[in-house]
Design a protein that fits this description.
The protein has 174 residues and is mainly β. The chain is built from 1 helix and 11 strands. The chain has a single domain, classed as Sandwich (Jelly Rolls).
Length: 174
């Protein structure tokens, strides 16, 4: 009898563990190239490029020292992934990165009205491969959202800075 009770208890425990796992697991959707080209810009001293394959490059050589302040015009280039909200976490994988310490890997989430639900950035030298993770703020709509990711450079004077990175995939946890 004791063996039968132990078997029933073990089977019940296994059933609970099996049932609870998939029901509680986060849903993950993975996006890969081609990505949508996003906003980009900079001044005449800068270079900016983003292509749908996932490669983003920015650079700027500005030789003039600032008397009071530096000029605006640092380059940026972004890629976009449209998603349905709400989003719990975003993980963006990259490889072949060579980004200097005045160029930042940026990740953000916003809606069509321009309301932002979080941003994050990787600062410092970024090389090789890795991930950038964003846990957005709550209160997101269930409707369309946009993940915006790429490179942005700080404006310095004088400066010579650059970065290039290849984004390989975007994972969205809901």
């Amino acid at each position: 009898m004791r063996t039968l009770v132990a078997l029933v208890a073990a089977a019940a425990t296994a059933g609970v563990l099996t049932t609870a796992g998939p029901a509680d697991a986060a849903k993950v959707k993975t996006y890969a190239a081609p990505f949508k080209i996003g906003p980009s810009g900079g001044d005449s001293f800068s270079y900016h490029s983003a292509d749908g394959s996932g490669t983003v490059t920015v650079g700027r050589v500005y030789p003039i020292p600032g008397v009071i302040n530096c000029t605006k015009g640092a380059p940026y280039a972004k890629l976009l992934v449209p998603v349905q909200g709400p989003v719990k976490k975003i993980v963006i994988s990259y490889d072949t990165a060579a980004v200097d310490d005045f160029t930042f890997v940026m990740v953000g989430l916003h809606d069509a009205a321009g309301d932002w639900f979080g941003t994050t950035q990787l600062r410092g030298f970024v090389t090789g491969s890795g991930e950038a993770t964003l846990k957005p703020d709550g209160g997101q709509p269930k409707g369309p959202l946009t993940i915006e990711f790429g490179l942005q450079q700080s404006s310095a004077c004088p400066n010579a800075d650059a970065g290039t990175i290849h984004f390989s995939k975007v994972q969205v946890f809901s």
